[in-house]
Amino acid sequence: MNSLNLLASVIDVVAGASMIVLSLPLLRGTTQRNSFYGFRFGRAFTSAEQWREINRYGARWTILWSSLLIVIGIVAFFIPFGDNTTLAFLWIVIPVLFLSTIPIIQAASYARRIAR
C-alpha cells in the first residue's frame, strides 16, 4: 500500500458516501421542488407527486451505485498501483464519473416512462 492507494480509496469512498448522504432526503421524499437539488427533469416539475416519485426512484439507484463505488474504493486500497499515477487517476475518475452518471440516466428514463 502506498499513498496512491490511500488517495484512490479515500476519494472513491468519500464520493460514494457523499452521494448516499445527499440521496437520503430525496429517498424520504422530504425535498420540495427547487431550483438546484434533486433529479430536476422537466417531468419532475409537473407536480409535487411526480417530483417525489422521480426523486425517490433516482435516489434508490444512486444509493445502489454509490455503494458499489464504496466497494471499489475499498478494493483500491489493495490494488498494486506502485508509482503508476495514471492507473490510480483512472481508478478514481472512471468509477466516480460512470457510477454517478448511471442513476441520472435511469431517473431520466423513468421520468419519461411515467409521464406517458
TrEMBL record:
It holds the Pfam family SdpI. InterPro entries: SdpI/YhfL. Keywords: Membrane, Transmembrane, Transmembrane helix. The chain crosses the membrane at residues 6-27, 61-82, 88-111. This is SdpI family protein. It comes from Thermogemmatispora tikiterensis. The lineage of its organism: Bacteria, Bacillati, Chloroflexota, Ktedonobacteria, Thermogemmatisporales.
